[in-house]
Amino acid sequence: MYPVPGHLAFSILGNRYFHADWIPVIIGGILPDIIDKPLNDLFHITPYGRYAMHSFFGLFVATLIAYWLFNRKTAYSYMIGHISHLIADVDFNPWFWPFVEYKFPSGIDVLDILRAPSTIFFPSWILWESVLLGLAVFLYSRHAEKRTVQAAVLTAFAAIAIYRITRRRNDVLAAS
Ligand SMILES: [Zn+2]
């Protein structure tokens, strides 16, 4: 839900471990929300804030466009970012859109930030997303050069990433 800093943290891992170029991997990490959220929340064209760009089909088409517009490395880097976004959103993605019909969960709306902040703005979300970002950035420091340290940081990252997904679903249910 919060494109920054959680999705940014996942994009950073794409640079760190998959040799993705910075700009396309970050764009890939946030573009799915930049396209899908307004289509639902602002324009009410789609049934849910995770739609075409949150599917394998969207991933494929967007990566192909990056390849046509730029080159193989940019398309690869973009693809890593986009995949990292889908992994971060793994609690619900319409993976096989438009080939499968989905029953979309009753989601919360980005505009609720303005209308009803208490239904969307949970400080604990921001906290955990920020911790993820901090861990990802830490992997570049000289304190994280040892493989054992990296393994520990990545384990903590994975644990928090999984925790925040289970936690998020409860929060959404509680808010709806
Ligand atoms: Zn998303």
Question: Would you mind describing this structure in some detail?
Answer:
The structure is a single chain. The protein has eight helices and no strands. The chain is mainly α and 176 residues long. The protein has one domain. Helix 3 runs antiparallel to helix 4 and helix 7 runs antiparallel to helix 8. The longest helix has 29 residues. The chain is globular and about 50 Å long.
In short:
The chain has 176 residues and is mainly alpha-helical. The protein has helices at residues 3-18, 22-41, 56-69, 72-88, 112-115, 117-120, 123-138, 147-175.
Strand content: under 5%
Question: In terms of quaternary structure, what is this?
Answer: single chain
**Mean pLDDT score:** 88
H/E element order: HHHHHHHH
Q: What ranges have pLDDT less than 50 throughout 5 or more consecutive residues?
A: none
Topology (SSEs and partners):
Elements: H1 3-18, H2 22-41, H3 56-69, H4 72-88, H5 112-115, H6 117-120, H7 123-138, H8 147-175
Helix pairs in contact: 1-2, 1-4, 1-7, 2-4, 3-4, 7-8
Bound molecules: zinc ion.
